[in-house]
């Protein structure tokens, strides 16, 4: 993946700066650990990846994604943003078209038991640590 490791405060400062810069309004990031996030450089191939509620990629370690199932040539590579973000304020409308589409993706989706079952150990390490440490998910569940 590559990028810059940042604390939550540093990530918030980067978000604030991006909001003021129309040339760079979006920051691609994911949660590595409790207060550690990876900010990806702009225009990297992963930055052009899309979310799916039934993705064909999933995490195998802190910085690597692998195929979740066979991917045909020309298929779009997708991942579930829920497996890599724990920023509570994160919300994104979804229209991925999957029968599993949640319609809204949030930074609290890692707490959903259905997603925890679906992805098992295939989360960024920071989220996996939270999942293993939480006895009862606290977010509203479907």
UniProtKB/TrEMBL annotation:
Domain called Post-SET: residue spans: 90-106
Keywords: S-adenosyl-L-methionine, Transferase
Keyword Mitochondrion: no
Xref: InterPro entries: Post-SET_dom, SET_dom, SET_dom_sf
Keyword set includes S-adenosyl-L-methionine: yes
Domain of life: Bacteria
A GO term for molecular function: transferase activity
Record protein name field: SET domain-containing protein-lysine N-methyltransferase
Source organism: Actinospica durhamensis
Lineage: Bacteria, Bacillati, Actinomycetota, Actinomycetes, Catenulisporales
């Amino acid at each position: 993946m590559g990028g810059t490791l940042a604390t939550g405060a540093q990530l918030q400062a980067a978000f604030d700066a991006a909001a003021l810069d129309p040339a760079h309004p979006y920051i691609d990031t994911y949660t590595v650990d409790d207060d550690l996030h990876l900010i990806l450089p702009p225009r990297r191939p992963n930055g052009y990846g899309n979310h799916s509620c039934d993705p064909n990629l999933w995490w195998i370690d802190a910085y690597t994604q692998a195929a979740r199932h066979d991917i045909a040539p020309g298929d779009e590579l997708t991942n579930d943003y829920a497996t890599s973000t724990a920023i509570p304020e994160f919300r994104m409308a979804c229209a991925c078209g999957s029968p599993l589409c949640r319609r809204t993706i949030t930074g609290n989706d890692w707490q959903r038991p259905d997603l925890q079952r679906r992805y098992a150990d295939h989360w960024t390490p920071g989220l996996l640590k939270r999942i293993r440490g939480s006895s009862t998910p606290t977010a509203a569940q479907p």
